[in-house]
Amino acid sequence: MLANNITSTHPVTFLLMGIPGLEHLHIWISIPFCSAYTLAMLGNCTLLFIIRVDAALHEPMYLFLAMLAAIDLVLSSSTLPKMLALFWFRDQEINFHACLVQMFFLHSFAIMESAMLLAMAFDRYVAICKPLHYTTILTKPLIIKIGLAAVTRAVTLMTPLPFLLRRFHYCRGTVIAHCYCEHMAVVRLACGDTRFNNIYGIAVAMFIVVLDLLFVILSYVFILRAVLQLASQEARYKAFGTCVSHIGAILSTYTPVVISSVLHRVARRAAPHVHILFANFYLLFPPMVNPIIYGVKTKQIREWVLGLFLRKDVKGG
């Protein structure tokens, strides 16, 4: 009823469809979604806590990791609670302005995550290629500036979108064929000339993914060259071993993006739920696995977590 209450420019509310064609499986689908969200919350909060309380972890690499964990928390929390309400209680309605806010946070923090992976690549480049200057180059003021630059870039690029969407009439209905308010899913409901929105959305996505990934690859070209110049094989393994966690985070973040992009172009006639499931996978997978990757591969964090559990066992005994 509310969904049909239209003002002069936009609907009061939208209706989120969820996963089209799989509505009867929403309860079952919610189980892995809820599990992934719980793991993401626990893992990233644990990382932030450990980095905060352990002074030995107040180094550039871990400060960037703390930023990544905070970004992952907001990224997953911007969509998952509403998504679970949709799956569990069929709470499909979302206020128009709340939809725009969700869209802004979703896309902004996805851009920040890409920027933070690039910053972490720069950190590994300095650590391996310029080890004697590591502490003088990556100072805390520079780290703060990098963090602010990541936020500024994301906010600057995404701020126009809500204002652009507010100017449209929505005569193509109010049902969003998605689990959350994704930019292009909202644009499809708008009437009028939406070419600028389409071009702007694609241009920003390509700019972020291509540019950031290009600089990440370039960093690793220099890193690989520096590693191969080391005298012993043991030194090479040790140096490159410090990059394994970051490479894992890159793969967990960009692989779903690339797969989803390829599917949109190669499998255009695929059922809608295939594309939506991959889009959800991008939101769920990186926040869930990044803490696990760094927890397993980073000695200081692994020892801290193991020590925490061992202390609990001793007290319990």
From TrEMBL:
Residues 43-294 form the G-protein coupled receptors family 1 profile domain. GO terms for cellular component: plasma membrane. SUPFAM superfamilies: Family A G protein-coupled receptor-like. This is Olfactory receptor. It is found in: Cell membrane; Membrane. It comes from Peromyscus maniculatus bairdii. GO terms for molecular function: G protein-coupled receptor activity; olfactory receptor activity. Odorant receptor.
